[in-house]
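RETRY 2/3 - previous attempt timed out on the joint model. Re-submitting the same 1175-residue input unchanged.
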Amino acid sequence: MNTPISWLKAYVPELACTDKEYNDRMTMTGTKVDGVVRLDKNLEKIVVGRVLSIEKHPDADKLIVCQVDVGTETVQIVTGASNVFEGALVPVVLDGGRVAGGHDGGPLPENGIKIKSGKLRGVPSFGMMCSVEELGSDRNAYPEAPEEGIYIFPEALGPITEQETCQLAEAGKLDSEEARAMHPVKPGMDAVELLGLRDTVFEYEITSNRVDCYSLLGVAREAAVTFGASFVEPDVTPAEDETGDVNDYVSVEVKDPDLCSRYTARVCTDVKIGPSPYWMQRRLAASGIRPINNLVDITNYVMIEYGQPMHAFDLDTVAGHKIIVRRAQDGDMFQTLDGQMRRMDHDVLMICDAEKEIGIAGIMGGENSKITDDVKTVLFESATFNGPNIRKSAKRIGLRTDASGIFEKGLHPTNAEAAVNRACQLMRELGCGTPVKGMADACSPIPERTRIPFNAREINAFLGTHYAPEVMLDIFAKLEMDYDVDKEEVIVPYFRQDVKAMCDLAEEVARFTGYENIPMTLPGGSSVMGGLTYKMRIQDKAREAAMFNGFSEAMTYSFESPKVFDRLLFAEDAPERQAIRISNPLGEDFSMMRTTPLNGMLTSLGTNYSRRNKDARLFELANVYIPKALPLTELPDERSMFCLGMYGEGDFFTMKGVIEEFFEMVGMNEKMICDPKAGKPFLHPGRQALIQYKGETLGYFGEVHPDVAGSYGIGGRAYIAVIDLHSVIPHTSFDYHYTGIAKYPAVSRDISMLVPHEVTAGQIEAVIEQRGGKILESYHLFDIYEGKQVRAGYKSIAYNLTFRHREKTLEEAEITAAMKKILNGLENLGIELRS
Amino acid sequence: MFKEELEKIKKEAQQRLESSESLDMVNEIRVGVLGKKGSLKEILKGMKNVPAEERPQVGQMVNEVRQQIEEAIAKAQKSIERKVQEQRLASETIDVTLPSKRLPKGHSHPNVIALKELERIFVGMGYEVIEGPEVERDYYNFEALNIPADHPAKDEQDTFYINGDILLRTQTSSTQIHAMESGKIPIRMIAPGRVYRSDAVDATHSPTFHQVEGLVVDKGVTFADLKGTLDEFAKKLFGEETKTRFRPHHFPFTEPSAEMDVSCFKCGGKGCSFCKGEGWIEILGCGMVHPHVLEICGIDPNEYSGFAFGVGLERIALLNYEIDDMRLLYENDIRFLKQF
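RETRY 2/3 succeeded.
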């Protein structure tokens, strides 16, 4: 909500503070100020001038030379504007002054534009006449301003406050020469002031619970309590001299009270459409609403004041002079007053007359009952609709309006009555129409005001404060909350629907004694052991292992396109394709919860490759979401995957090393087994492996299949590993056991062999381990060769074996025996020993 | 005559040693004088011509000469060795300003750095770190948090739904309910995690981001405790000189609620372009756990109270490391990651 401070001061006349103070203190009591705009920013030395004479410029067809009386002197001003005339009253920026913008109405420069005297085609000019655009405004705020050209003031402003208008109305002089001559405009006056620009507009961020603060009166109440000033509410009691009976004009029936708890209607006769007075136009314009005519302006004015959207019908178009509020029928078509045909359904509430639908409740009126300038009798609707229903209806119809935006917050039925009375009061004050006595009212029982037991000790205990009960009661009183001394209950006013329980009272106490005055303490009581979960410790170890090996941590989205499965060459029946779909995704690309971390990793590697980063090593601790069954009835299994990806330097065995190192870091000291028959379609068929540990598969890794790498824009070889941390965790341990450092010497033996091509190192090592016995301490492959010097179909492999006995020096015979067993085993694999 | 011979040998050896330049030369002298066929051995052959009574004296003389020569050799050796080492060291001088050699190391993600900071601070204050599901039931994400079926926050445009009952959590506040339902009191926990909102991707929005939820429930927990705890947190995260400001706000599941601002860490609160002249930077939302929420979780609000808070991890990371575009966090360009 944007409103000028001058309007707010109409209800808090004692308010006296700087813009900054207002901003800060309102923010600190909960009405957060989100924006502050001074309307006279960069407007300097701008006065009213009267054009005395106009002559043609001697050397330029499109320029004229004006003599302008600016009060203290007459100055010569050259202008290209064609709308000025002799006798016109115009805003003039004098030499050395400043305006906010250019005449084209483009973005305003931060420091405005300085105006200096100079020569225009050889003729001296001492200042500039201004358009509303140059004053930083536009024709929405000043509809009377010319489309292109200088703003022309009226000879007099007329009444400039509501009080003046009121007094004139009471004296029956609204439409008089006297009224029109009030506040004459004279040369030398402050043009900025006359244009209503000596003002500041505040924008507020209102929280969703404070429906009352979506109105100026609500904010004014907050301001009054914040600054300890009094709040002056408009008196909207209908005048005693009203005549007629509303029931002779209209009857109201609500058929669906669940969607409309109150519908009030009042009627004004003898309607005269015309411009609204100066003060109303200026207030609306400063609030960002274009003044249209008195009737439209009044409904907009009341909407800002009371936060109550109203609708005005031409009573002569309401068939049977009857209002019926009921649900639409499925499939009904209705033309709203913007000319659009819209499809209704059973849950949309309609305003109808005796024959037809004339408006969508709370959203928009109908084309068929649109008000024209010929309107004689106006029916004001001021109603309370079911907030959630309005919100849902507006969404389904695809028509969200200012009115629906307010209704959906849920208004109080009492507000409807106040607002419709205010509208009628303004109709009368502005001479726009004559209110008929009485109000048609279809109203469900209005809820009793909320009563909350008051216990100061409880509130202090909750806040950690020591305020006296009187301090609290004083705040409640200022907030228009009554106190039942006997029952010790606070009675909440109707407009504070958010205050329901002790904690809400505590908040009011905290807000108006100041959040800043609540002390700062630390919770006492029993202490709890802090710490990470075991899974988080393992994840941190994964991070350590990855980063130690040059991998940086990545983060990718958890949702992706279902097309990734085709891109990753998954079979039609691959279990990974059983993925959770989002019913309202941002788009297909974000529509499915990932079941593998592959796509995110490959996409990130592709991004790096396309940006010509030479090497990339990334890892992600990525959750995947595995449904137990589809469609989802139970929550899915969320599994943390340790995913590593790289291209550039390093190869398959680099990746293997990282995995081994991670396993070692989490106490997995058994040998990791690589099973080449991984069967992953997205990996190179000859360069992939399942990661097995103690007979369980914990993940896989390998070189990315060139087709897949290509489709992600990765040139060259890329490697990826995926480890399921949930499967890893049961094998991990942070228990360490010391075994004594060996005292006896080790003996080392080399074996050089000719190995059939298809036999793997893994097979050889399995034999060595099985047959080496207890005295085999370690082994390592130190040479592998396949090529010209080796028989076709064979490769040459050499291992170094280390033997040691823990308790004695080994004897030659023991080593020979162990070696023999190993060699026999190797021969069984078709391996020949090389001499 | 014998004596002169000995003196001659000694002198000659000493002279040669003094002028020798390598260990080989010294060794040559040693062999030439003291060796089996050395000049000293040769001279001893003439001992048989020495009268028997003079022999002990001559013997002693020979020994003395031998000893002196040996000492001279040792000295020469030492001096040559030193000289050689000096030459080697001189020749090994390097340019210490040449580039260093480093193992390529991986880098943390800025989100993770921020998360680890938060964890460190709160674990230090005795908080447990827990997790909750990202794919969550409506009840935990909304209903139990005082957000009834018709609340605008539930509007489809904000929340990703799987079906009518299951959704992608929009806030880590759902973990509060899990923690309180467990029935273990006192509670002191933080719960980091990924959350989802239906926002299109741009420099300041992402449909996925991370929050860290905090919850304390015990007997006698007050709003003052909330302020004190979060003030402590802000000082530990942004520096001891940091000031905090609590502004009234609204969340359905806390009452009273607040937003916490910290004094701008660029200008110290004077107002600058970083804090848009405000002097304050909004950091988190917080409040006293709404008694109704306690009740929903089976905790008696007359006996217990609590406070809760939620921090946007990306917000902390973007602010702290001055990252101007949220998309960078999910692109994983190594030139970005390398800076952390």
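Residues 55-91 of chain B form the longest helix (37 residues). Closing ticket.
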